[in-house]
Design brief:
This protein is α/β, with parallel strands linked by helices. The protein contains 8 helices and 9 strands. Bound molecules: adenosine-5'-diphosphate and guanosine-5'-monophosphate (5GP).
């Protein structure tokens, strides 16, 4: 595979979005897939940029048409990676998928050359601080997301790499090294 498919996972609030955005900004050979979801947009999110926001009916139709590389349900909503969209982008760039553990392992099954990267927090306290500081979730949603933390991090041995997002610049350099060394 000339361009790489990098799959980035980690608990909500760990800094995946921040890292991927910064990596894209400094590497013109890297782009990000846009997933489909049935969850409503957060303030400031745009259709086709953060996600393709679909109705449940539309999402189910696309599952039936085999239009997802992988899909899963979280917090009562569907999330999925549009297959043709990713295949098209891989022709010209390395592509990053920002998806959960189940989706990542399903992607590895479908595309064994994909490189799985777990982003881990420096500590639970710091993760809580980032999640609360972002100010996009209710307290209930934060608790819900934290409850998945232990499971997500316990899966890191199935990943090719674990990157601790302590210092942003340091973590970014580690991601770049992986990008340049991955097959
Ligand atoms: P995710 O995409 O994993 O849910 P975000 O990228 O939205 O996480 O980051 C959550 C919050 O943590 C944001 O407010 C972001 O600015 C902050 N953040 C991300 N990386 C770091 C870091 N290395 N150090 C301190 N704060 C960070
Ligand atoms: P959020 O609602 O915070 O944007 O995302 C919630 C969860 O959905 C995160 O764990 C995120 O990684 C996951 N997710 C986002 N896109 C996809 C996708 O295309 N497929 C799968 N399986 N999970 C996704």
């Amino acid at each position: 595979m000339r361009h790489k498919l990098l799959v980035v996972s980690g608990p909500s609030g760990v800094g995946k979005g921040t890292l991927v955005k910064a990596l894209k900004a400094r590497r013109s050979d890297v782009t990000e897939s846009v997933s489909c979801t049935t969850r409503p947009p957060r303030e400031g999110e745009k259709h086709g940029r953060e996600y393709f926001f679909l109705s449940k009916e539309e999402f189910l139709r696309r599952i039936a048409e085999n239009d997802f590389l992988e899909y899963d349900e979280h917090f009562g909503n569907y999330y999925g990676t549009p297959k043709s969209f990713v295949q098209e982008m891989l022709k010209s760039k390395s592509v990053i998928l920002e998806i959960d553990v189940v989706g990542a392992l399903n992607t590895k099954k479908a595309i064994p050359e994909s490189v799985l990267i777990m982003i881990a927090p420096p500590s639970l306290e710091e993760l809580k601080r980032r999640l609360t500081g972002r100010g996009t979730e209710t307290q209930e949603a934060i608790e819900n997301r934290l409850s998945r933390l232990e499971y997500e991090l316990s899966q890191k041995d199935k990943y090719d790499y674990t990157v601790v997002n302590d210092d942003l610049e340091r973590a970014l350099k580690e991601l770049e090294t992986i990008l340049d060394s991955a097959d």
